[in-house]
Amino acid sequence: MFSEGADPGPEPHPLPAPGVPGASEPPGAELVSLDPRVVGYWRVSSVISSVVLLGLAFFIGGSIVINAPEALPIAVGIWSLLFLFRLWMLWWHPSRAYRAWGYRVDDRVMEIRQGIWFRSITLLPLSRLQHVDLNRGPIERSFGLATLVLFTAGTQHASIPLPGLDAERAAALRDRLVAAGGDDAV
Amino acid sequence: MPSDPAPPGSPVPPPLPSSAPAGAAGEPAQRLHPLTLLFTVWNAVSRFLVPALILLILRKETYIVGFMVVFVVVPVLFGLVRYFTFTYRIEGGELITRQGILNRSERNIPLTRIQDVRIEQGILHRLLHMVDVHIDTAAGGEGTEATLSVLARAEAGRLRAAVLALKGRLQPGAQTAGQPVTPPPIPRELRRLSTGDLIRAGLTSNHLASTAAILAVLWGLADDVFSQEAIEQWVQSFVARAESWTAADLSAYWVLGIGASVLALLVGMVVSVVGSIVLFHGFTVSRVGSDLHRSYGLLTRRSSTLPLRRIQVLKIEEKPLRRVFRLATLRADTAGGTTDQGRESKSGRDVLLPIVPREDAESLLPEFLPDLDPAGGSWTPVSRRAIYRGTLKGSLACLGLTGVNLFFDPTWHSLWPILLIVPVYFLNLQSYRHLGYWMSDRYLRTRRGWLSRAGHVIPVRNVQSIVIRQTPFDRRHRVGTLQVDSAGQVFTGGGPEVSNIPWKDLQRLAWTVARQASVTRYRW
Q1: Are B47 and B75 in contact (CB under 8 A)?
Q2: B460: distance to nearest CA of chain A, Å?
Q3: Does the interface ipTM go beyond 0.90?
């Protein structure tokens, strides 16, 4: 569906032809997928949050069982279900999410797609870009990844995140977006 | 499956690429003033003083160490980290801030986007000749986009001059001062509301809740003023009299109940009408040049000026009761307003025009949005699947209700909710007929609802982003939902949104809007 255009090489993004103002068709460019390393990053984050969640559930369940030993089978059952669900999510969700995410940008509009079941396409006219954040958490850094956050003056979608970008590309993309939008070139 | 990801932790992350040639094109990265550290400590200690005093008074000295860790040591540590990692610089027409050790964050703010450079000073600031600098853009969300705390006053002045110089508006008054003095434009009255209009507005507004509140207050007052026995006696005598009116004992309570409801409704209407008149007495809205001027109020006289270009979204609202009388309310979002909705509605700022006949609302639109060409587009309906889907949803609810009924009372009478499916279908048919969008080269309009209608008009120049969504059910019907984001959606309740648009049309529509928006300038 998407081009696997995210090999971590140094070449630039596949660039679409310059957009024609007023054209209603999407640009001819292929959607770019996220950096494949994001799957590993999401898995590691998921492991951490799962450990915290399951640990919390363990303590809550444990404190209930101590007071009411007859609840032990139910508690074990619920906890195992939770465990299996997280395990399944860990295995299934990141790769599916990776395939669902995609973006493309021409000189006027940026498109971001996401969502496995609940899909959404966000179109951001670059002349509406207010400023851009480039965030790198510790785990992201160990994967060489970064998250861009695009800010508009909007209300419900005032900040539009784009995770899972190769760090250098994220910076290059950021510079390109700011250059395209920030000068208000109309 | 994607190609296997790199094993975690194996590659040493390179530093942020843009950091290497810092200052190549602009200035070198700057740190905050070293006195920042003092301010950090001062802030932490001043926050710690009150809890510490309370603990001392309560003679719980042992807790002080814990409190000190929470209120002093942790904030100071954070402050230290912030001071040693926070840098800012102006480079290539952007203000770039960086911070963080573990969670590194870099923010690029184009100088052309900066709306305001605020310089603030507290008491300690003044003693030490330091300032806080707050950088604001039009970006949505809370807070300032960058806070530089603290800087030397000279450095703040330099920064501000640099920002404003690059922004090309060092002297904000220069543009107006240079122009020849033009005579002030003559106000042109667009609409004046008569007392009759305001009475209609009051009668059709849903003020049942406020009535209930007032009755509760009155009840509380009655409780205070009269003794318990007096009230009981009064109620008893009233009940007795009501009983004598009607033969049956039980029906007296019915009469009482209905009487109380009617009374509540009447009181509510009176309250609404009085409230409407007090708030909006003498309401006029006029065009003065490119500004809208509104003035109204019986006791507190209010007047406000709204530059037309500040109107982000306009909403024509028709609540059920007003629909009957073909009346509408006009609301407008203005960027940069406060978001205290309760206070705004008490001061009437949330409505542009409290009440107006439906047809007049339509013809007034070009006055508020001057370049709106009513003939520039036509209404496009959504997919007919909307009727089927809405009816299906409603029918399932009806069937569910039937099931519950049958569970408690397994007789033929319990099947009545099935009859509701017919009106449900009718409702969905009507809703479908009023669901749609309208697109011209400068405006996007949407409308939805039948019992309660809402129409949005948004200038494409104010569109911030477009989001189209598709749920799994949408996918089966090949439709989706359009959502258009704009600044300061406070008064219009969420901006334009239309569901059940055929997915292909929706994508084309979204791209059309995005392309048109991209070639316009958003002026805040």
Answers
A1: yes
A2: 11
A3: no
B111 and B226 inside one domain: no
Domain that holds residue B440: 284-382+435-518
Which residues of chain A lie closer than 8 angstroms to B99, CB-CB? none
- Whole-number Cα distances in Å, A132 to B24, B113, B120: 21, 11, 25
- Domains contained in chain B, number: 4
**pLDDT tens digits, residue range A6-43?**
343 333 333 333 334 444 556 667 889 999 999 999 99
Neighbours of B245 (CB within 10 A): 10
Average pLDDT across chain B, whole number: 81
Q: Is residue B487 part of a domain?
A: yes
From B246, B280, B314, give the residue that closes a domain: B280
Over residues A91-141, the pLDDT tens digits come to 999 999 999 999 999 888 999 999 999 999 999 999 999 899 999 999 999
Q: Which stretches of A68-166 are DSSP H helices?
A: 72-100, 138-142
Q: How do strand A119-125 and strand B94-99 relate by DSSP bridges? A: unpaired
Task: Give the pLDDT of residue A13.
Answer: 38
End-to-end CA distance of chain B: 45
Question: E-strand spans in B23-111?
Answer: 87-91, 94-99, 104-110
For chain A, the farthest-separated pair of C-alpha atoms sits apart, in whole angstroms, at: 71
What angle (nearest 5°) sits at the alpha carbon of residue B322, between those of residues B318 and B326? Answer: 85
- In terms of domains, do B376 and B390 share one? no
Half-sphere exposure at residue B188, Cβ-oriented, CA atoms within 13 angstroms: 9
Residue A2 confidence (pLDDT): 43
What is the structure's pLDDT at B12? 36
* DSSP H or E segment with residue B437: strand B436-439
Domain ranges of chain A: 39-96, 103-182
* A42 to chain B: closest CA residue: B5
Closest by CA to B193, choosing from B108, B275, B296, is B296
User: Residue B93's domain is classified under what CATH number?
Assistant: 2.30.29
Domain match, B370 and B480 both: yes
Nearest CB neighbour to B464, from listed A115, A137, A152: A152
Say what angle helices B36-57 and B74-85 make with each other, to 10 degrees: 170
Spell out, as residue ranges, where chain B has pLDDT lower than 70: 1-26, 141-142, 167-184, 206-228, 231, 239, 241-252, 336-346, 524
Summary count for chain B: helices (H), strands (E):
17, 20
The reply to whether residue B112 touches residue A182, judged by beta carbons under 8 angstroms, is: yes
Contact B522, A153 (CB under 8 A): yes
Residue from A20, A130, A143, A184 whose CB has the most chain B CBs within 10 Å, to mutate:
A130
Q: In terms of domains, do B197 and B53 share one?
A: no
Q: Are A141 and A123 in contact (CB under 8 A)?
A: no
B374 lies in the same domain as B468: yes
Q: Which of B81, B478, B504, B515 to mutate to test the interface with A (most CBs of A within 10 A)?
A: B515
In a domain, residue B8? The reply is no
pLDDT attached to residue A79: 94
Least CB–CB distance from A154: residue in B140, B510, B519 = B140
Same domain, B422 and B439: no
**pLDDT single digits (tens) B156-188:** 888 888 887 776 644 344 444 444 556 667 888
- The reply to whether B366 and B392 lie within a common domain is no
Domain co-membership, B147 together with B268: no
Chain A's closest residue to B479, CA to CA, is A119
